[in-house]
């Protein structure tokens, strides 16, 4: 597929005796929101780790913007425009929301420009007005959005979100979907791992189903939701 910005080809990842990825091939197109679903242990998080380079595949390759990045370390892939937000919150609780952003902004911006740039990122993730609040005093949802802010501070081309709606209220979940759509509208390619089907439905994006470390099904969310085989793997009978 010529529009692919990021792809994995026949990737295997073996941990001891566990085949976390077992011949996974998947392409993400430039400019899309792409949802990744699948039962617990399907290999979703391992897929992310091989994409960003915190794990090397046992075999197979990762291609980003036409370049084979399989052997590139994570920091080099980050410089090429790949960014991730894992499920845990990555901010420092004792620092303010604004101060947290100084760290990722330091590399690419002159010192004098950082506070303004940090405020702009906070506004982008819906935290305007909360600049000087210590992170530990923010709600769980606000902390999740700050973590997304930390991941987009360097203006990545591709953003990977591992379970961004986990533990959020219904209201916060809606806001998170809005934020994803907004960032995507500004041109960011976004890959989202989620278990919350209502959330994925609201994103209405192309969806890949992983099962036992392989691509099991792929299509528009409605097709996936109606797929009898996909329903069976969630019930544990396939
Ligand atoms: N570092 C590791 N060492 C050993 N086994 C691992 C490691 N990381 C993942 N695994 C195993 O690989 C398989 C895939 O794990 P992974 O975390 O990618 O699944 P997942 O689809 O993200 O699951 P979940 O929905 O529960 O987050 C699981 O069987 C898991 O136990
Ligand atoms: Mg996971």
UniProtKB/TrEMBL annotation:
Pfam families: ABC_tran. Residues 6-237 form the ABC transporter domain. Signal peptide: none annotated. CDD domains: ABC_Mj1267_LivG_branched (cd03219). Keywords: ATP-binding, Nucleotide-binding, Transport. GO terms for molecular function: ATP binding. This is ABC transporter ATP-binding protein.
